[in-house]
Amino acid sequence: MESKKPSSIDFVTVKTTLPVYPFPPNHERSTFRSERLSMRHMTEDDFGFLRTLRTCPDGMKWSSQGGPDIEMEQTEKSLSLRLPPKDGERYDWVISLIETGEPIGLGGTCAWSSELGWPALGYIFLKEHWGKGYASEFVKVYLDEWWSLPRNEVELTVDKNTILEEDGDVKQECISAITLSENAPSQNVLKKAGFKFVLSWTEADTRDESQEVTLHGFVVRKGKVVV
């Protein structure tokens, strides 16, 4: 679950905290809610929904994969990563409407170590549910859930720009989010939730490795969520 670290980022090893890893398995996870949304773990019955979600070009172009699933095996692999025995490696959730029970998205921590060194938050919604404020609503309540997890003190190699100089020996923990430079809607969602821009860098485009894309990195610390 580790991402390749860009050479343009300046790393430092620090003492900090992280949630106990592996994460709680699916059968130990409790659903949580916001005003309009309910979050639950994924099951084998979610394959059809996941297939619909991951074959939408407009949504998947913003993902680390860079485009939609083509082969059925791609979606099957994505599902298997969220079921036992792999469930403890991720902390992401099926996002459903409370009013109807309809699943409309997937979000959470899908990378234990992002390009910035910290765990990474991500989300994707069915296109017909864009523009309704669901992403902002999910990110806010998910961060509350994330910070409530039990923690250990660890040594971690992270981008030096994510460390506050005024911190003591144990640095404040962050959770990160990475977006393509042109994904302004997601950047606005992150800023509303208290995330701060850290830096930009370029990487090979997963859709065409002869091309490069520019990525923006953001982080947030506990207690920084904007209401």
Name the poorly predicted regions.
none
User: What is the total number of structural domains?
Assistant: 1
Shape category: globular
CATH superfamily: Gcn5-related N-acetyltransferase (GNAT)
Backbone structural class? alpha+beta
CATH architecture, by name, is 3-Layer(aba) Sandwich
- CATH names the topology as Aminopeptidase
Helix content: 10-25%
Number of DSSP helical runs:
5
Radius of gyration over alpha carbons? Answer: 17 Å
Main beta sheet strand tally, sense and closure? 5 strands, antiparallel
Number of strands: 10
On the 0 to 100 scale, the average pLDDT is 94
Question: What's the SSE blueprint?
Answer:
Blueprint: E1 11-19, E2 32-33, E3 37-40, H1 47-54, H2 57-60, H3 72-80, E4 91-97, E5 103-111, E6 120-125, H4 134-147, E7 151-159, E8 174-180, H5 184-192, E9 196-205, E10 208-221
Helix pairs in contact: 1-3
What does this structure look like?
- This protein has 227 residues and is α+β, with helices and mostly antiparallel strands.
- The protein has a single domain (11-221), classed as Aminopeptidase, CATH 3.40.630.
- Helix content is 19%, strand content 34%.
- It contains 5 helices and 10 strands; from the N terminus they run βββαααβββαββαββ.
- The protein has helices at residues 47-54, 57-60, 72-80, 134-147, 184-192; strands at residues 11-19, 32-33, 37-40, 91-97, 103-111, 120-125, 151-159, 174-180, 196-205, 208-221.
- The strands form 3 sheets. It has a 5-stranded antiparallel beta sheet with strand order 2-3-4-5-6, covered by helices on one side. The chain has a 3-stranded antiparallel beta sheet with strand order 8-10-9, with helices on one face.
- A hairpin with a 2-residue loop joins β9 (196-205) and β10 (208-221).
- α1 packs across α3 (72-80).
- It starts with 10 loop residues before the first strand and ends in a 6-residue tail after the last strand.
- 29% of the residues are buried.
- The model has no long low-confidence stretch (mean pLDDT 94).
